[in-house]
Every structure is written in structure tokens, then in C-alpha cells.
Structures
1.
Amino acid sequence: MSEPKVRLADIAKDTGYSLATVSKALNGRSDISDEARAAIDRALKATGYQRRGQKTAGQRYIEVVFQDLDTIWALEVLRGVLRETRHSPTSASSRRKAAHASTPTTTGLPAC
């Protein structure tokens, strides 16, 4: 049986940083501290974190992570992503545990 895949939420919990900060570190954003980036990078390497899917030349991905999808804000963000990717092949996936769980919902959408 294979080991469960490491999720960004797991890295956030292990490092004590928010899911947003972990995502920023993974995507090379400059608006986090060097200390946070180093700690998150160490955790990503130590756990063998792998992004879902492989990028192919010319194809970009947008991954949107929400704690809950039952807010107007979340729906507006998704509507904007779909509007901007309307001329590109688009797919969506979600993963959610029990309704009371605090596990984030992840939606991966290919960008144009």
C-alpha cells in the first residue's frame, strides 16, 4: 500500500505557518520572510512533497485552496478564475472530509 500524499495543509500544520504562507513559499512569492521560506522549504523537502500533475510546455495551472466554499467571497474568486480561463480547457476537482472537518478544499484549474 502506498503512503498517503503530503498536502500543503500538512506542511502548514508541521511548520506552524498558515496555508497561505506555505503556498506563497511554494510559488516563489516574495512577500514572506526568509526565515519562513527556509522552514517551509526544509519541510517540503523532508516530506517529499510533490505537486499534483506535471506541467507541460506552455501549460500553466491555477490551484485555489479554500477553507470553506460556502462564502460569497470564495464563489466570487472561483467565478473570476473561470471567467479568466474561459478560452482554455478547464477542469476542477475538490477534496473535502466530513462537514465538520477543518481540512481545506482544493480546486485545481488549468490556466490559459
2.
Amino acid sequence: MRHVSLIFAGILVGVPPPDMGAQMSSSRSVNPDPQIMQAEQLLADHRALESLRMFESVLEREPENYEALWKTARGAIVMGLLARGHTETENRWHKLGEEYARRATVVAPDSI
């Protein structure tokens, strides 16, 4: 359970795990995925649902993309926070965020 708590702590704070850069290939760190960059900008512009959908489109073509998994988890948690007061909807978003976070830790188990 502590493992899951650490995942959510990082997601809620909105920062990647400390060694996220180590999980990305050197070519990706030099040439970041433009869709991921655009999704990040959408999130910064308070367009969380659009951002989440764009991260999901990255995962459609690269299902084991650690960065996209982690940031999709964060996006789902943001959507859950925006749904406060609507318990069922909030819980569905948080559950989705947890699923993406778990997938990220399977892809990169040393990330936590």
C-alpha cells in the first residue's frame, strides 16, 4: 500500500518520479515527443481533458511509453480533482489514474 501512496503523492504534486529522465531513451530526451509536449501545454492551459486525450493518443501508438503513462495518470487524477463533489465520477477518474500509474511502474519498476 505504501507503494501506491508514493505513486499518488507524486501524481498529486504534479511532478514526475525523480528518475523519469533515466527511463527515457537518450534520443527521446534530445527530441521529445511533440504530442507529449503539446499535451503538457494543454494541461498548463487548464485544458485537462484535451491533455488527457492527447496523452492517450500517444499511448495508442506507444503503449509502454513511460512518460506518457505517468503523465496520463496525472491527467486522470486532475480530472478526478475537478470532479470533486461528484463522488462516482471522481472515483472513476482516480481509479483510471491509478491504473495508468501502475502500468508506468510495470514499464519502469525502478522509477519509484
3.
Amino acid sequence: MLCRCQIGKLLALNPGDRSTFTLSSRELEGVKKFLAAGGFHLASLNKVVIRIGYIIYDNGMRWEQGYWYRPNPNEPGKYERMSPQPSRALIGLLTA
């Protein structure tokens, strides 16, 4: 399974895999400035929420914002939303 973890970089994870994200000093300064603009300080925070924009599986299936998509055979590189959405059992088969 592949997902974009940073701009221009792909991350491949297998079930049960873990990943550690490292920020450069420049990125960390950007985070600190962003937090300070909202009245927060990095030292006072103890939780991070990472939002996943989308996931593309090895078989071409795509998950995005709670919806499943399949490759569009008429427009290579594009996707079409599956309607109705597949059942959990079918999702297991599609992404295995």
C-alpha cells in the first residue's frame, strides 16, 4: 500500500508496519510558528493527529475521505467512485 507522507515521497506499509516521521529543523520551526500564530506552544502539546488524504493500494484501488474508487478504464490515471460502496468483506478481498 502506498501513501504520500511528505510532498514528493511515497511510503509503502504492510499490515502491522509502523513508521516514524522526522522533521527537519526548518520544518520544526515552521510548525512552531504555525502553532504560535494560534496561541499554542509545542512544549505544551502531547498529541498529534495525522490525517490521511488518500491511500492507493497495490491493485489500483483508492480510498479517499471514506469513499472507495477504482481505476477508470476509459481515462488512465483517473478514478471513478464506486457506487454503492463495497462491503467490508469485499474491501478485504480487494485490498488483500
4.
Amino acid sequence: MSTTTVGSVEDLCAAAVAVLGTDRSDVPFALVYLCEPDGSARLVASAGILAGSPAAPLTLPDVPELVAGRLATRRGPGSRNR
């Protein structure tokens, strides 16, 4: 997949997970969830684990506000981006 074929955030996530999934010894599985405005998160890409299985639910109903805030700002404890 080239950068010209990535048309959405979901496509970008799928492309990144496809790359991660090429070396199962380094990355046995990968899951990418996108946060939704209602506080939930939906699975948009997976590798090495069955999407929709108990270990990789299609939706996470309540993403904690703390986690959602850190994802939005890309800062966490000990972050050097201050």
C-alpha cells in the first residue's frame, strides 16, 4: 500500500497494522482502536488476533476519560513533550 492509496484514518491504521503484522516474532498481535465522540472506541485494524473475539472486541463501550485525554494530547506521565 502506498501513501496515495490511503484515503482515510481507517485506511492508514489498516496499513500500519499490516506492516506490524509482517513479523509475528516481534509483534505477535496488534489492535488499533479509534475513539468516538460518545466516549467509546471502535476497532479499525487488527493483526494476529481475530477481530471480534473476546480478546479483541469490535467496540469498547467506555474508554476512560483519562486515557482518551492522553491519546488526544499525546502526553502521559513522564512525557518529555511539555
